[in-house]
Design goal:
The chain is an alpha+beta fold and 140 residues long. The mean pLDDT is 96. The strands form three sheets. The chain has a six-stranded antiparallel sheet with strand order 3-4-5-11-10-7. A three-stranded antiparallel sheet has the order 6-8-9. It has a two-stranded antiparallel ribbon with strand order 1-2. The chain starts with a strand and ends with a helix.
């Protein structure tokens, strides 16, 4: 789905406050990345720091952080689980997030309770208005 000039694939779920997307994979694993609008707002991303593979996470854990010239963002999610994969290509070349945010997942997390996902992440139809208002506000 398009909102102004930003893409939001229908098959993903979104966390609009943090501008994150997730894809539910097999075995209670989710891929996590930054939305098209999120990367636009951040500007050119030059550093991605993540927790290591195998680390346990909870709602207080900074799962990853992103840095751009105008912004530093630390990302926590109200979930419990374990980091099962880190996208080394993205950590080596963070601008991939700017170039193609939906192919550039950052981490994969095995969730203890996949049911929590529906409380935290929403379909694009559920958050369309919120993204639309923010897009109108930030696009110059």
């Amino acid at each position: 789905m398009k909102i102004l000039s930003f893409n939001f694939p229908d098959d993903l779920l979104y966390e609009p406050e943090k501008h994150l997307w997730i894809k539910i994979e097999d075995n209670n694993v989710i891929s996590v990345g930054l939305t098209d609008l999120g990367q636009y707002m951040a500007g050119k991303i030059f550093q991605v720091t993540t927790k290591s593979k195998g680390e346990k996470i909870n709602s207080r854990t900074v799962i990853f952080s992103l840095e751009s010239a105008k912004w530093v963002g630390k990302f926590r999610l109200p979930i419990e689980g374990e980091i099962v994969d880190v996208n080394e290509e993205v950590t080596r070349n963070p601008s991939l997030i700017n170039q193609n945010p939906y192919e550039s997942w950052i981490v994969k997390i095995k969730i203890n309770d996949i049911g929590v996902i529906k409380n935290v992440f929403k379909t694009i139809q559920e958050v369309y208005k919120q993204f639309e208002e923010e897009a109108k506000r930030v696009v110059r």
